[in-house]
Design a protein that fits this description.
six-stranded mixed sheet; 318 residues; binds adenosine-5'-triphosphate; OB fold (Dihydrolipoamide Acetyltransferase, E2P); 25% helix
Length: 318
């Protein structure tokens, strides 16, 4: 049996357009899936529906075969087993780190509570900050507290709604690596929402792409990279150069080889130093402006350049 099943979920806010359109997804126990979509594509709405915090217009969510009910059908919306972690932390500002993590356990036995909080503080490396207030912590530390708060109830499913967007790149990478290991240890099922492909790839190899409330493509990144279903899926991974006279067909900068004498002629208009190559902006004889990768850093501004690519690498039609 599928562990977490999202079955044809539909959502229309009052007086609005459909935000989710027949969205279906199955997750196995312990699976970590990154869901990528542009701003406004319905990701947060989907997570709130999965958590039982938002009414859906049609479709169902099942956890281990049991139906997750809409908030309007339940006295206290939501489930202890499914926890949502928000981008803006949602911490109690006047409570310490320890108190924040303890709060969801208000009704639990004192001994259990103490043991649980201690283990979470340890798991997240927050022991030395336990008496601090959220505002005395860095963004990354606050985000860890938010995750600790969600973990205190021993959830089976963790829903992460763009939790790292306020952190800098290094903080994000470190935290994601740490969490990835932790999720595996805890065998928690995770749906991680982001608009950032790098964050998604750091977190998991299972990607789901959503656009305008619809599931566009899911699978391993390599598969989506080589066989994108639409322009959004293709563009997520890199810039796309339009092939002259072949409308809707494109070639990626990384799939183009540069030569000094044979191939499609172009002229270097701009050169930008990037970590692994110079990114050249070139103009083809047919007028198109392309981006190419000069890995040997050998071409300069105004220089003539010749381009070749393998027809098998062409993507489209989109
Ligand atoms: N409570 C609400 N009432 C009415 N419309 C809403 C409500 N919440 C979200 N929407 C609309 O639903 C659409 C999807 O919003 P949602 O927040 O789910 O997208 P998202 O992909 O999470 O975006 P972001 O990445 O910017 O957080 C947007 O057009 C938004 O304006």
């Amino acid at each position: 049996m599928t562990y977490l099943k999202l079955d044809k979920i539909q959502k229309i806010y009052e007086n609005g357009q459909p935000v989710l359109k027949e969205f279906s997804l199955n997750l196995e126990r312990g699976q970590v899936v990154s869901l990528i979509g542009e701003s406004g594509s319905g990701k947060s709405t989907l997570l709130r529906i999965v958590a039982g915090l938002e009414n859906r217009n049609a479709g169902e969510v099942y956890l281990e075969g049991l139906r997750i009910v809409n908030p309007k059908e339940k006295l206290v919306p939501g489930y202890d087993e499914i926890q949502l972690v928000y981008q803006d932390y949602h911490l109690y500002p006047n409570s310490t780190v320890e108190e924040n993590i303890t709060r969801p356990l208000l009704l639990y036995d004192k001994n259990y509570k103490e043991k649980r909080v201690k283990s979470i503080l340890k798991l997240l490396g927050l022991e030395k900050f336990k008496d601090k207030l959220p505002r005395q912590l860095s963004g990354g530390q606050q985000q860890k507290v938010a995750i600790g708060k969600a973990l205190s109830l021993e959830p089976q499913v963790l829903l992460l709604d763009e939790p790292f967007s306020s952190l800098d790149t290094i903080q994000r990478r470190e935290l994601i690596a740490e969490l990835r290991g932790m999720f595996a240890t805890l065998e928690v099922t995770v749906l991680f929402v982001t608009h950032d492909l790098d964050d998604a790839l750091q977190m998991s190899n299972d990607l789901v792409l959503v656009q305008h409330g619809k599931l566009i493509q899911k699978g391993h990144p390599e598969e989506i990279f080589s066989k994108p279903r639409n322009l959004y899926a293709a563009k997520l991974f890199s810039h796309l150069n339009p092939i002259p006279y072949q409308q809707q067909y494109f070639i990626r900068p990384s799939d183009i080889q540069l030569f000094k004498s044979t191939g499609v002629p172009a002229k270097v208009k701009e050169s930008q130093y990037l970590v692994h190559y110079n990114q050249l902006t070139v103009q083809l004889g047919t007028g198109e402006i392309w981006k190419v990768e000069d890995k040997k850093r050998e071409f300069g501004l105004g220089q003539k350049i010749y381009l070749k690519w393998d027809e098998g690498k062409v993507v489209g039609p989109f």
